[in-house]
Amino acid sequence: MRILQFGATGQVSQAMIAAAPGRAALSVLSRAQVDLVDTAAVEAAIAGADCDLVLNCAAFTLVDRAEAEPEAARAANALAPAAMARACAARGLPLVHLSTDCVFDGTLDRPYREDDAPHPLSVYGATKLDGESAVLAWEKGVVLRISWVFSRFGRNFVRTMLQLGRSRDELRVVADQYGCPTDAAALADFILGAAARWVSAAPGDPAFGLFHFTNAGATSRHDLAAAALARDPLTRATLSPIAKRDFPEPAARPLNGALDNGRVSAVFGWQAEPWASAVARAADEIIAEGLDA
Ligand SMILES: NC(=O)c1ccc[n+]([C@@H]2O[C@H](COP(=O)([O-])OP(=O)(O)OC[C@H]3O[C@@H](n4cnc5c(N)ncnc54)[C@H](OP(=O)(O)O)[C@@H]3O)[C@@H](O)[C@H]2O)c1
């Protein structure tokens, strides 16, 4: 299995790089090699690649900054995936792309399913939704919507809470915003396991299309922080719950971003691990490796 991966330094990119040996030959393209804003370079990279499948782990992920830089967000999150879809269609290659719960407005009172209507509240969410549409226009396109990604790699909420827990006496964390944490290592394991099916499946196979992929169960930002801090004997912070309205950010986020994993479970037989045990394991890894990675 030969996979061409856009993205080298991000959380999911690094989880793929760590998990691939022995399972797939991964060719990784960093921003220095192919900048997503250069759609001709994106298409040329796929046209000339020795690969069976293309995976896009790169994106403009700075949710707040996207409000001030909508064109940069659109280039990376909408135009680049469209170029990837064109180039993959020209060669008949499956394209696996990552999206977000931020395509939803969070007003539903249950976890979102793939057939629920999107309504993004932010530039980031709108550009990611456009990227989804472009990828899904290719009949061998796969979009995995993920949320609240954590891992031992890079910057993420779990690492930030662990860092702040050692430097502050009190942490005020939003308790009325809900989502499903996603373990980047589990996502990498799933992608590597499903790759053979995507490569061999014919158009129309249920393995293509839109899926929600997270760990099992939803939680609040506050309870996610508590689960991380509980692993650190050196934490000194007390957690205080606050309301989202008391933690304003430039970009609006869904108050309920929980995603229903039923489809990925039905089509692939994927058994999602409960978020709490996966977060505990990642927190232990971050603490063991040093909080400042
Ligand atoms: N993190 C989350 O909580 C979360 C939640 C929902 C969905 N997602 C989605 O999951 C995917 C992976 O996210 P992640 O957490 O792994 O992201 P991340 O850690 O923020 O990494 C983003 C990656 O994209 C690369 N990149 C950004 N702009 C680029 C450009 N113009 N050209 C080439 N590469 C560029 C970055 O490279 P540099 O290091 O050079 O900047 C980096 O490797 C994204 O599609 C994201 O939208 C993430």
TrEMBL record:
<dbReference type="InterPro" id="IPR029903">
    <property type="entry name" value="RmlD-like-bd"/>
</dbReference>
<dbReference type="GO" id="GO:0008831">
    <property type="term" value="F:dTDP-4-dehydrorhamnose reductase activity"/>
</dbReference>
<feature type="domain" description="RmlD-like substrate binding">
    <location>
        <begin position="1"/>
        <end position="285"/>
    </location>
</feature>
<dbReference type="InterPro" id="IPR005913">
    <property type="entry name" value="dTDP_dehydrorham_reduct"/>
</dbReference>
<protein>
    <recommendedName>
        <fullName>dTDP-4-dehydrorhamnose reductase</fullName>
        <ecNumber>1.1.1.133</ecNumber>
    </recommendedName>
</protein>
<dbReference type="InterPro" id="IPR036291">
    <property type="entry name" value="NAD(P)-bd_dom_sf"/>
</dbReference>
<dbReference type="Pfam" id="PF04321">
    <property type="entry name" value="RmlD_sub_bind"/>
</dbReference>
<comment type="similarity">
    <text>Belongs to the dTDP-4-dehydrorhamnose reductase family.</text>
</comment>
<keyword id="KW-0521">NADP</keyword>
<comment type="function">
    <text>Catalyzes the reduction of dTDP-6-deoxy-L-lyxo-4-hexulose to yield dTDP-L-rhamnose.</text>
</comment>
<keyword id="KW-0560">Oxidoreductase</keyword>
<comment type="pathway">
    <text>Carbohydrate biosynthesis; dTDP-L-rhamnose biosynthesis.</text>
</comment>
<dbReference type="GO" id="GO:0019305">
    <property type="term" value="P:dTDP-rhamnose biosynthetic process"/>
</dbReference>
